[in-house]
Write a structure and sequence with these properties.
Length: 174
Amino acid sequence: TRDGWGLMRISKRTPIRLGALVAGCLVFTAGVCLAGFSRRPERARAAYERAVRLQKQLEAKPKQSRTVAEYKKVIEKFHAVYWNDFAYSRAPVAAQAIGDLYEEMGRWFSNADYFSASIKAYQYVIKQYPVSSMARESTLIHGYVYLRDLHDAEQAKEVFQSLLKDHPGTSEGR
């Protein structure tokens, strides 16, 4: 019902109705999100095996004959691992490999954009797989990229401090 000003009057049942509306929206949103999320562990495993093979082929070539396209092909295959199954046991390893490849590209092709991409990949590992050993390693490597490749001592210090705070009893945290 409305009052004389055209505003809704709040009744005793309004909070229940609002609560039901919010709950319904949350259930709908979760359903839409989950509908897009599918686990395909066999595809993830196959993608990981293919990515590792491609990475070994790339590493067997002399660095001066490697191309950006070859690196990106390997990176794409590693991306396919967690796209197919986020929970696959090798997904954190694949995500960190992406960071490692971008870091190598940054050094070899002297391009800061690749260092930025490596940092994003390491941050992804840290955020999505926080309890894995890959998260600790990614934090450490991420700090070194800032320090030695991007020459940003302040950012490196922040990353290393977060490592000490988040992983104090680990070898990486020491």
